Amino acid sequence: MGNLHTIDLFDIGLEKGKHIKHLPLFYQIFGQPAHKAPVVLVNHALTGNSQVIGENGWWNDLIGDGKTIDTSQYCIIAFNIPGNGFDGDPTNLIQNYKDFTAKDIAAIFWKGLQSLGITELFAAIGGSLGGGIAWEMAFLKPQSIRHCIPVATHWKATDWLIANVLVQDAILNNSKNPIHDARLHAMLLYRSPQSLKQKFNTEKEKDRELYQIESWLAHHGNKLQNRFQLPAYKLMNHLLKTIGETSSQDSWETFSRETKSEIHLVGINSDYFFTPDENAETYHKWKNTGLKISYHEIDSIHGHDAFLIEFEQLGRFLKPIFS
Fold it and tell me: Is 128 an annotated catalytic residue?
């Protein structure tokens, strides 16, 4: 349990017309066996991976024995977005990153689940990019997810998000130090001015000319550069702008008529990346249509990254679903 496994997928058709003959899909399983307990799919964010719990687990405070998503009660499955490099094999990195969309990844995840003999999910949950992929999975199979839980994301990329993806892509393709420099910019999207003020208060490093905020950003740039590969970062960044790319008002109306899913939106009041008004607008637009939809908002100064920080609030919102 928790070891990295592989599913070999073949003959994958992509939204933009390209065809993949062979695609390895890497995943981990935590908690109960897949056919002995309800299945919860956890989708990782841009720089995340399938290691949701355990050593280096990025959602240890939320998922585990006796925690909000209880591994003694549920089977937890987490796929790696193909090309994210978590398997450590450079031959599996995707070079033609613009061939893929978030909808392609959602379809690939469904194929992976079907290979495991799983046709229905108790829940699909993810933050940021992972939440966008959860939305795409729900649109693809509106009767196969009981609880869809998109956290700090939206069902369709906005102009603001698309613009920032372009800036990131330009840095990644033109900088002499691409991962490091792109991460500097990205961290300013993931946090808020208030969060940085609380953390650093415009103070300098001891015996140095650098401000603490400068050292902190450089640290995150170096850290990501040491564990992430350029083709992987290009792909993950690109996928953000494709969330909901083929979805429309008609898609929503069809989905709302056909789905059996309960939609649990979770926004963050200080999120500058996926702004909370997007989720609030979605909720108010669809709450009286018969769609089972709810909206919760994390109160935090920490911006987009609050979904990785404010575990107590997030756990409180999720507890009624998983209890």
Answer: yes
